[in-house]
């Protein structure tokens, strides 16, 4: 697997963009994070160690990270775009509580196999997919 720094630098060059110190720092901070985060959350973490980076720079760099395959946009149906690591992480699906917004990452080989079988029955070869399962989490279901 290619180093994410090299991958991002190659993507930036292909897009005729320079690998600036700001972009490199945003990449480094993003790679340190676990789970899902908004551009605002990443901006706050970046700003803590690099005061002169603006929010627009973080947002544009996140878009570049998505385009390069390092980050992936996720939408839990609440109108907020979040980002998670895609490069080097196993594929997973999400369970999302419609009440409190809690989400759980699910890695289930049976589901993955079934998705491939369904695609094959229809003559498709899967290249990628997203699956979000919505419901009520155990804590919210107690009431």
Question: Any overview of this molecule?
Answer:
There is one protein chain. The chain has 143 residues and is of the alpha+beta class. The protein has six helices and five strands, in the order ααααββββαβα. The strands form two sheets. Strands 4-3-5 form a three-stranded mixed sheet, with no helix packed on it. The protein has a two-stranded antiparallel ribbon with strand order 1-2. A hairpin with a 5-residue loop joins β1 and β2. α1 packs across α4 (55-68), α2 (21-32) crosses α4 (55-68) and α3 (39-49) crosses α4 (55-68). It is flat, with a radius of gyration of 18 Å.
Order of helices and strands: HHHHEEEEHEH
* Largest sheet: spatial strand order: 4-3-5
Instruction: State the total count of DSSP E strands.
Output: 5
Give the DSSP E fraction (strand runs of 2 or more residues): 15-25%
Largest sheet: 3 strands, mixed
- Over all CA atoms, what is the radius of gyration? 18 Å
What low-confidence regions span 5 or more consecutive residues with pLDDT below 50?
none
Distance between the termini: 47 Å
Shape assignment:
flat
**Fraction in helix:** 40-55%
SS content category: alpha+beta
Q: Count of DSSP helices?
A: 6
Q: Average pLDDT value?
A: 89
């Amino acid at each position: 697997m290619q180093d994410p720094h090299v991958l991002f630098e190659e993507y930036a060059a292909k897009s005729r963009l320079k690998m600036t110190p700001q972009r490199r720092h945003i990449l480094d901070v993003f790679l340190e994070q676990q789970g899902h985060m908004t551009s605002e959350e990443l901006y706050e973490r970046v700003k803590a160690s690099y005061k002169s980076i603006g929010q627009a720079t973080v947002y544009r760099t996140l878009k570049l990270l998505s385009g390069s395959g390092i980050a992936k946009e996720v939408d839990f149906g609440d109108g907020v775009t979040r980002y998670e690591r895609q490069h080097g992480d196993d594929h997973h699906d999400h369970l999302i509580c419609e009440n409190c917004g809690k989400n759980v990452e699910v890695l289930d080989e049976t589901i993955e196999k079934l998705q491939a079988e369904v695609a094959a029955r229809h003559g498709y070869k899967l290249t990628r997919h997203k699956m979000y399962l919505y419901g009520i989490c155990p804590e919210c279901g107690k009431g």
